[in-house]
Amino acid sequence: MANPLHTRVCDLLQVRYPILQTGMGWVATPELVAAASNAGAFGFLAAATIRPDDIDQEIEKVKKLTERPFGVNFLMDAPGAEQIAAAIIAHGVRAAGYNRSPNAAIIEKFKRAGVICVPTCGAAKHAAKAESLGADIVIVQGSEGGGHTGSVPTSLLISQVVDRISVPVVAAGGFRDGRGLVAALAFGAAGVAMGTRFLLTKESPVPALTTDRYVNAGIDDVYVTKQVDGLPQRVVKNELLHGLESAGSLRRLWRALRSGLEYRQMSGATIPELVRSALSIRGHERLTRSQMLMAANAPILARKAMQDGDPVHGYLPSGSVAGVIEDIPSCAELVQRIIEEAEQTLRALSQE
Ligand SMILES: Cc1cc2nc3c(=O)[nH]c(=O)nc-3n(C[C@H](O)[C@H](O)[C@H](O)COP(=O)(O)O)c2cc1C
Predict the structure, then answer these.
(1) DSSP E strand boundaries for 214-266
(2) What pLDDT, in 10s, does the model give residues 274-287?
(3) Angle CA(208)–CA(209)–CA(212) in degrees, nearest 5?
(4) Fewer CB in 10 Å around end: N or C, the chain?
(5) Residue 46 Cα: closest atom of ligand 1
(6) Is 318 in the pocket of ligand 1 (CB under 6 A)?
(7) Domain 8-204+328-350 adopts which CATH fold?
């Protein structure tokens, strides 16, 4: 019998196991990506929080740490997107990850260069659109997933999308172990993608003061809020969120303006570029003007928690799964454990 844990995704990504480590701003650094890929999973470098001028050097860092294939996840409508796409092609990166505002011209370039296109979608209609634009694999993220998230639970979204598109579907939102991997395969997916679980590994760059908040969170401590940047985001409750929820509009505006200025310094983007990017998000997500102003809050406030180790003033994007994760294994231990448990689960299911 064919190995059920060897799926079409393994062949497309040239990877041992059908497990993807997703792009997470400030978290999916070269060290984490290489550790995930060396463990037999497929890592995505998060380019949303890398200055476009630094992308070549960050891709080179991954290549020094692993000979295995990996991907780069980026925002196709952000300043510098063309530069990042060019770097992906020039460095022969195996896959490109993206989500909102897919850009047909960039996707076309990837297809010509043989880069595997892996968008993430939170709704069946977006998955169908992504396929028609050339996706080779579609990650579907259910509402349990971390960071920006939709409203359809993972268990319903997977089969809904599998029934609608023909390219392989990878399930995201709520995965952490081998039972989850087998369940995703049973729903028709060809693998799982995990963010929060990889954030909580030894090779994750996130300081302990911040990871402690995730490990100590219960399921009820992880909830969806629009207070960070106007869009629904799943986060671990903390002091910052409490403050934003009780703040008046002037304080929120002040917060958004400070983030905007810091973002400009961080990204090196010019003001017209930032405005163009915000307008494009606005068109895509139907954001109000005040939501547009808050757009820079997400990367800036995440940096405080993820890089500076300040879980009080930063925000903590997280999947619900943080509520049931209690340890920090290495990537190799994690991937091995998932595969062993998946094999054991498959054996138990096939016993008479
Ligand atoms: C800390 C954190 C940061 C994230 N940053 C990004 C990002 O920069 N770009 C992106 O497309 N998705 C981002 N996400 C979403 C993840 O890539 C992934 O889709 C999600 O975490 C999957 O759900 P899970 O956490 O239940 O595994 C982030 C998620 C987390 C937890």
Answers:
(1) 222-225, 233-236
(2) 666 655 554 555 55
(3) 75
(4) C
(5) 8
(6) yes
(7) TIM Barrel (3.20.20)
